[in-house]
Each structure stands twice: as structure tokens, then as C-alpha cells.
Design a protein that fits this description.
The chain is an all-alpha fold. It has one domain. The chain is 89% helix and 0% strand. It has helices at residues 2-30, 33-62, 70-100, 104-138. The radius of gyration is 17 Å and the shape is elongated.
Amino acid sequence: MFVATLLIHAAMLGFMVFFVAVISPSALKSLDIGSVSKFLRYAFPRIFAFGFVVATMATLTSFLAPPSPARLISLLSALFFLVNWLVLTPRINAQRDLVLTGDNAAKARFGRLHGVSVGLYLLQMAGSAAVILLLHSSLG
């Protein structure tokens, strides 16, 4: 059953890279700043919710396979998506709204929260890459 976990992590890494490499830059280059903001506020919660579902599937399949670090990595990835979706994104949006009203202190808070969000996302990408390498090497 570790093949399912491997494939799910490959798909998860693929959609994460696609968003970072294609969707975000395309929005930034083709939309005005107001439209980009509106688009990203709409997209990010859905991306994180989708990622949570996908990472949860990876977690479940990892428990049907022999024990491996893929279990912990999958579980952490699901939790990171949940944190990004339900905790960080609403706070980031609130701080961004305050920045737009001229609140200079909110700019620093926005930066810190955004940094944590990006850091979790990068950890998830690295985790999926690690699971792919680990489980692929188990195929023989």
C-alpha cells in the first residue's frame, strides 16, 4: 500500500509546485493588484483545504503500509495544511487589511505570519519529496 502513499505525495508535490511556479506568477503578471489580492484570497483557502484532504489521504494510506517515516511526514503535512487554512490565512488577511488602512505595525505582523505560512508550505514540499525518494527506493 506504500505505492498509494508514494503516488499521493507525488500528486501533492505536483500541485504545490504548479501553484508556486505557474498560478501565482501568472496572476501577478496578468492581473492588477486589486484583482490579484482578490484572487489569492479566494485561492489560498481552497488550496490549503484541498491539500489537507490530499495529505490526509496520504496519512491514511501510510497506515495501511509497513511502518515508515512517511506516516509522520504525511500527518505533519496534513496538520500544516490545516494550520495554514484555518489559522494563518485568516490572520494574514486581517493583517493585510490593516496594512491597507495605514497600520505600520500590521506590516511586520503580516510579514511574520506570511513567513510562517511560506515556511510550512516549503516544509511540506520537502516532506513530500522525501517521502517520494524514500518510498521509491523501497520499490527495489
